[in-house]
Amino acid sequence: MKFSDNRLTSVFPYFQLQLGALYPREEIRKQAKMAIEHLFGYDSIFIAAHPDTRLTESEMLQVVYLMKELKTGMPIQYVIGKAHFMDLELKVNEHTLIPRPETEELVSWIVNDFITGSSPVILDIGTGSGCIALALKKLIPDANVSGCDISSNALSVASQNADTHDLEIQFIEDDILNPVLIKTVDPVDILVSNPPYVTNAESSALHTNVREFEPHQALFVPSDDGLLFYRHIISFAKEKLNPGGRLYLEINEKFGKEIIKLLEKEGFSEVELRKDLSKKDRMIRARYL
What is the rounded CA–CA span in Å between residue 157 and residue 172? Predict the structure, then answer.
């Protein structure tokens, strides 16, 4: 099995040996911690306090079986069937994008703008696993939150996540490029979206675990028009935002200036572009009327 011994901490060099060709060292260490917690229930604090905890042969075999899937390039979140987002443990699978830290920053921006005592109506376009909608409902309990997605399979996962966390969200199956059902929803105070924004030309730059395993429908624009979804979302926002309502977008770092111009052309004000923790242009906020 290529373990140096049966101590708990031997999982880390084993992961490095098996995955060193696929990921940088810190990512491998993160995956090893996730595997240990998933398989044995030991968190980082336990690992640090009890590094010499002995694994049984059966437990070591569990690690080996999990590694067989990881070595294909499959993201560990899909292998273990869950991901963490804003203190929520969420079910994920091949029908949903894996929630990312940049999207947590977008949610934090919305929450920090929230006025205490109000009950905003929020719509999340392209909800996927429901991560944005669920986090907003948890952090703004009086909000009325809905999420829409074109994928019925993704919405099934989102609904399961809402049930798991006892959060009331209305989920709607619809296509923002040809909206029907969401056109009938009541006006909203906050419209948020992390739409597909990777162009086909950029696909080769993606890591294999993203390009080969995450849902292309949620990643790629169906042409090389990187602004396609943003034009449709902005047009929809003009129809559905209450006066003074806000639009929040996660964006492709290459298209920040173009999206700002588009928003201003369509009558939005107070347009602000923010960078993520990696110093890349990643999110935009704008107010309508």
Answer: 13
Phi, psi of 220, rounded to the nearest 5 degrees: -105, 140
- Average confidence (pLDDT) over 129-157: 97
Domain extent at residue 128: 94-288
| Total domains, the chain | 2
Same-domain status, 123 and 223: yes
Q: Apex CA 219: angle with CA 88 and CA 19, to 5°?
A: 70
CB atoms under 10 Å from CB of 178, counted, come to 8
Helix (H) / strand (E) containing 105: helix 101-113
Residues whose CB is less than 8 angstroms from the CB of residue 68 and which lie 6 or more positions away in sequence, other chains included: none
User: Which range (128-142, 151-165, 206-220, 245-259) has the least confidence?
Assistant: 206-220
Beta bridge partners of 287: 246, 269
Q: In what order do the strands lie in the sheet with 281-288?
A: 170-173, 144-149, 121-125, 188-193, 241-250, 281-288, 268-275
What predicted TM-score, i.e. pTM, was given to this entire model?
Answer: 0.93
Whether 78 is in a domain gets the answer no
Same domain, 238 and 125: yes
Residues 140 and 173 in one domain: yes
Q: Work out the pLDDT band at 98, boundaries 50, 70, 90.
A: very high
